[in-house]
Amino acid sequence: MKTVYEQKAVIILPKNSNAFAVETPEHLPQLHQLCIANGKRGSGKSAAIINLMRMYKENFGSDLRIIIVSPTFGSNYKLLSELGINRNDIFEDPDDDVPAKLMKIANDERDDFLEWEHLNNYYNEFIKGLKAGNFDRSEIQNDYIYNPLISLKSPNQNTNVI
Asked: Alpha-carbon distance 158 to 162, whole Å?
């Protein structure tokens, strides 16, 4: 086989782009990823994947969402049940609707992240303005600062999915 290089086919990478933006511990494969286990029956595929997911779960805690598409999930339920996977994130009967369902999950996660990003930016600007004295404290203190029913804190982010 002969390798031919095409000089006109120049690959240009986007600037400031990091495909692996999720900070992952050094002892684990970098996130994000697509992981496929292939092997004969009884070769340890499920054990390896479940342990990998467990290690991610230990590092990311409840911020990690695991989605499973597997027709053999039922035979591994005992192992997988310890990971606390949401029943709605398990697709045991892969059919033509699964890709659309996965896209909906991804789009919902994106929308949640964008909402969090907007709220977080708004919160940071509000706190910065509050510290700089750009607001009349008498107008907002009764509604926000001294009202125990209103929690003035940074919004939570929940976006890690594997």
From this structure: 13
Q: Is the full-model pTM beyond 0.90?
A: no
DSSP the chain: ------TT----PPTT--TT-S---TTSPPSS--------TTSSHHHHHHHHHHHHHHHHGGGEE--EE-TTGGGGHHHHHTTT--GGGEESS--TTHHHHHHHHHHHHHHHHHHHHHHHHHHHHHHHHHHHT-S-HHHHIIIIIS-TTS---PPP---EE-
- Interior/surface letters 32-46, b for 16+ CB within 10 angstroms, e for the rest: eeeeeeeeeeeeebb
Residue 63, pLDDT > 70, answer yes
pLDDT band at 148 (very low <50, low <70, confident <90, very high): very low
**94-107: burial string, b at 16+ Cβ within 10 Å, e else:** eeeeeeeeeeeeee
